[in-house]
């Protein structure tokens, strides 16, 4: 029996610690969430049972996490793969705009929100505990 996620297929009894690209659009949809407002998130970790998980988010131009800030109990970090991502962190007056190859780390239990105000899509690899 194999488990399928995003573009990945893995056999947990053989390689529970690794995911390998498998191709095929039907596989992509298996672990994809549409957050609405132009944000799509894909679980890219082989498992969610360890101390951290990885997600890849794709943000269309103008996409935003909206006015309702995200508030997570775990720490989060990210790496901008493509495009630009603007982040507002609770307690900071000015947002920060990250570009491709920039990274960020958000403390646990601090509210934040994010958006892509650029004219091109953005892709971000998130790591969260």
Low-pLDDT runs: 1-15, 24-29
Strand order of the largest sheet: 4-5-6-12-7-10
Shape: globular
Helix content percent band = under 10%
Counting DSSP H or I runs of 4 or more residues, the number of helices is: 2
- Biggest beta sheet attributes: 6 strands, antiparallel
Which structural class is indicated by helix and strand composition? mainly beta
**Rg (C-alpha, Å):** 15 Å
End-to-end distance: 28 Å
Average pLDDT = 77
State which percent range the strand residues make up: 35-45%
Total count of strands = 12
Taken in chain order, the helices and strands follow as EEHEHEEEEEEEEE
Provide a descriptive summary of the structure in words.
- The protein has about 130 residues and is mainly beta.
- It is about 10% helix and about 45% strand.
- The chain is built from two helices and twelve strands.
- The chain has helices spanning about 10-15, 25-30; strands spanning about 5, 10, 20, 30-35, 40-45, 55-60, 75-80, 85-90, 95-100, 105, 110-115, 120-129.
- The strands form three sheets. The chain has a six-stranded antiparallel beta sheet. The chain has a three-stranded antiparallel beta sheet with strand order 1-2-3.
- A hairpin with a 2-residue loop joins strand 4 (about 30-35) and strand 5 (about 40-45).
- The longest helix has 6 residues, at about 25-30.
- It starts with a strand and ends with a strand.
- Mean pLDDT is about 75; it is low at about 1-15 and about 25-30.
